[in-house]
Specification:
2 copies of one chain form a homodimer.
Chain A: H1 4-11, H2 15-22, H3 30-43, H4 49-56, E1 61-66, H5 71-87, E2 91-96, H6 103-110, E3 117-120, H7 127-133, E4 140-143, E5 154-157, H8 159-172, E6 178-182, H9 188-205, E7 211-214, H10 219-231, E8 238-241, H11 244-256, E9 266-268, H12 274-278, E10 285-287, H13 290-306, E11 315-317, E12 320-322, H14 334-347
Parallel strand pairs in A: 1-2, 1-3, 3-4, 4-5, 5-11, 6-7, 6-8, 8-9
Antiparallel strand pairs in A: 10-12
Chain A binds a DNA duplex through helix 2 and helix 4.
DNA sequence: GCTTGCAATGTAACCGGTTACATTGCCTCT
DNA sequence: AGAGGCAATGTAACCGGTTACATTGCAAGC
């Protein structure tokens, strides 16, 4: 491998001059600069970034530590992060703990000396542990994880507010008996969305004991919830799923049972994954603005890198309600709907 | 920042012993090893990977250079790559040239000394340029880019074979007048798919001048193609789009025009993006197995890293036909379909 | 008792850059 | 002419690890 010393020798100068010439420092003669550049060209010299990072004490890259790589979430997030990183000339070092919370610490440690800052999305479990593993020396921003005690900067989505907005919207549209399908136990997003739903429903309709079904964010669990509702002949007229995939599963089962989603029963999701636009009927949902989440986190991290020791306020992004056809009520009245569910329930 | 020298001092040993103890070398007494470990713990020492990489001449990470981060492609690819990288304890360094071919060279150079190998997906234009920029010293695998001349190892999808299979399938299903909607000019995937379509159609039906419409992989261009066909009253009974997004656009316009996709006109795509499963009707397509592409490329790269100088054969993955409802013919005969298109064309 | 051998530990070079500081050489000013 | 100043260039230390080689100390063998 050709090093800067080879270039210096080839050009007949010292390594210092070579370094200066190649880094556009202005304290080299134009003549020697050209000579050095030519030598580098001749030897097809490529600087060794690792070595460069070591002396300059900066790496021009940021680490991204994620709990897993499932779903739309991660790609949107990366897209947002990348946009900002690119604008600042930074590379992305990706680390995935593959759903294993024990990997978290080692993932964060492995980043030491390879990145200028860290974007960390803690897994649902043991995130306290992870936060403690963060070295105070390397700037870090937490993704989607409010942690009021620890002073680590964070960027998150207002899941609770989003769920409140959706709940109010459903009620405004005339839906009264709304059931909520939750995500995995312990999941922070799901818990916040459920809290928003419960609070808004109490406020708006006075309902104190709303119906809740446990799901796990998978399409299958959404389908299962719908089957449960049909079999149980529950008198409901809308289903609010904690994420879109479950809503999609729901819709599939309802359609198979001959129940017209939208007209007869409202279905809403959360996330606004691309699929939501294309299902039949298209799905009413909250756009979680995940790319913007990533971008905001990257911006915040870069600010932190440039101004170490600052303690920025947590950012909370408001999701946006996207009303589509799955919540357009048909001619049938609410009572008629409910009874229809009961009938269809038998035939399924 | 605490370094290994700090740890050594704290434990009252030399840096060599500290390094040995921390790296599980067996030539240290258990007693001193424990003493050093304890000291490291006390100082909460985290090794500086950058420095480590420099001396060991290996970084335990691989670089991934992509033309952009659009669509499903990239997330699936990363997922596949990550699976293998993780299994081998490697990190991923991501670089995105943001659709700018001129960035390619600098992206590859920036990786020098930070990765043990490179996974490169050349942009459509100027990929020759990029291949030349690859240093022979750092192992690299080309993604989705056959390059028979240059001896760079590669992994790709058999786009042509896939398109042939789909074309034959459509003909078997009874579709006769098939139009192909291509992707962007210069796009390698699109060109190969088109070639497969043209060849298979000539083989199977003897058609020498198949209908081709130029698209650009966007949903809008698929919609535009459908509008063109309707307005032009083209006597066709199936549309084969070079990717799924265009097929989705097609279906939307056809449905709006009152033409029943599947029954009256077949529509097929390519890629099998998640949406394809959920559209109404669900979309017949070729599963491009992108995650497997990434995984295969990562495997090949790791092989190359472990056995430098080897010249593995290019890998070509066969895509898989996924027959769904958009190509299920209804009762109406082909002739009836065509005339119906003509009628509907007027009314749109 | 003295050499030999071996295991544990220490010293210092090295990886490939950057840069503080030293040196050189030339120009200008008195 | 000599001092002073400044710009160009060179020397060598340094970043934080790893490791070849040197050294030490102790047990075994003669």
């Amino acid at each position: 491998m050709v090093t800067i010393r080879d270039v210096a020798r080839e050009a007949g100068v010292s390594v210092a001059s070579a370094s200066r010439a190649l880094n556009n420092h202005d304290n080299v003669t134009a003549a020697t600069r050209d000579r050095i550049r030519a030598a580098a060209q001749r030897l097809s010299y490529v600087p060794h970034s690792g070595a460069r990072n070591l002396t300059r004490q900066k790496t021009d890259s940021i680490g991204v530590v994620l709990p897993d790589l499932f779903g739309e979430f991660f790609s949107e997030l990366i897209r947002g992060i990348d946009r900002i990183a690119y604008a600042h000339g930074l590379q992305l070092l990706l680390s995935n703990m593959h759903g294993n919370p024990h990997e978290a610490t080692s993932a964060v440690r492995a980043m030491r000396g390879r990145v200028d800052g860290l974007l960390v999305m803690p897994p649902d479990a043991q995130h306290q542990h992870l936060i403690e593993a963060l070295s105070p020396a390397v700037p870090a921003v937490l993704l989607n994880c409010h942690d009021p005690r620890a002073g680590v900067p964070s960027v998150g989505i207002d899941n609770e507010g989003g769920a409140r907005a959706m709940t109010r919207f459903l009620v405004e549209r005339g839906y009264r008996r709304i059931v909520f399908v939750s995500g995995p136990r312990n999941n922070r997003d799901s818990a916040a969305r459920q809290a928003g739903f419960v609070a808004a429903l109490a406020e708006v309709t006075g309902e104190r004991h709303p119906l809740l079904i446990a799901g796990d964010f998978s399409e299958a669990s959404g389908a299962e919830a719908a089957r449960l509702l049909i079999a149980g002949r529950m008198p409901i007229d809308a289903i609010f799923c904690a994420n879109d995939m479950m809503a999609v599963g729901c819709c599939g089962v309802l359609a198979d049972a001959g129940i017209e989603v939208g007209a007869e029963i409202g279905v809403a999701g959360f996330d606004d994954i691309p699929i939501a636009h294309y299902t039949a009927p298209s799905l009413t949902t909250m756009n979680a603005r995940i790319a913007e989440l990533g971008a905001a986190a990257a911006e915040k991290l870069i600010g932190l890198i440039m101004k170490p020791g600052s303690r920025p306020e947590p950012t909370v992004l408001a999701p946006q309600l996207i009303a589509r056809l799955s919540t357009v009520r048909g001619e049938a009245s609410r009572r008629a709907n409910t009874s229809k569910i009961l009938q269809k329930g038998k035939s399924s």
